[in-house]
Amino acid sequence: MQIETTELRRKMSQINGRLEDYFKEVGKMEAQFIKLSASVTETVDETLNSDESNLLSIMYRERLDDLKVEIATVKNSLKQHQHITSDFSYKVYQNVDDLE
To answer: What is the pLDDT of residues 25-63, one digit of tens each?
Structure first.
């Protein structure tokens, strides 16, 4: 079986280009998620802390803490996802170079 390296390099370059675009878009979503998460947790925290009766804190502090834990989990997952995507893209890039 003969492999046409020119066509193979072209397709690999397409894969790499799509992965790079995907990486950038996920990065934008990650930044937006971090910004929105910080905003909502800060606002809820301030509201709970300003309630002199502590009733809101008693009712919702645990749920807010759960939300913060979940936000941290998602942020970590997004970072891992970006790392895997970057590694994949780099591997394809290296393989294109190896074919030249």
So the answer is: 999 999 999 999 999 999 999 999 999 999 999 999 999
Q: Answer whether 8's CB lies under 8 Å from 91's CB.
A: no
Domain span at residue 10 reads 2-98
| 30 C-beta neighbours (distance < 10 Å), count | 17
Under the phi-then-psi rule, with left for phi > 0, alpha for psi from -120 to 50, and beta for the rest, what region is 3? beta
Which amino acid does the sequence have at 93? Y
Name residue 34's amino acid: I
This model's pTM is above 0.85: no
96/35 Cα distance (integer angstroms): 37
pLDDT at 69 over 80: yes
CB within 8 A of 27, min separation 6: which ones? 82
Distance CA 40, CA 75 (A): 15
Q: How many domains does the chain have?
A: 1
